[in-house]
Fold:
Amino acid sequence: MEEAKSTIESDGHLNYVISTEKRNIDQLEAKLEFELEQLQLELDREDSVMISE
Structure:
């Protein structure tokens, strides 16, 4: 009985860790996507300035 309880607690902890890591990865992905969009906008502006010169 104690072994089953320990396994359930371990599974719960593992699920919590996985959930937390997934949230962290999702946040990092969102930040990287935002940075990429900002860089793309900057490049587009630079291209636009170079074309108009």
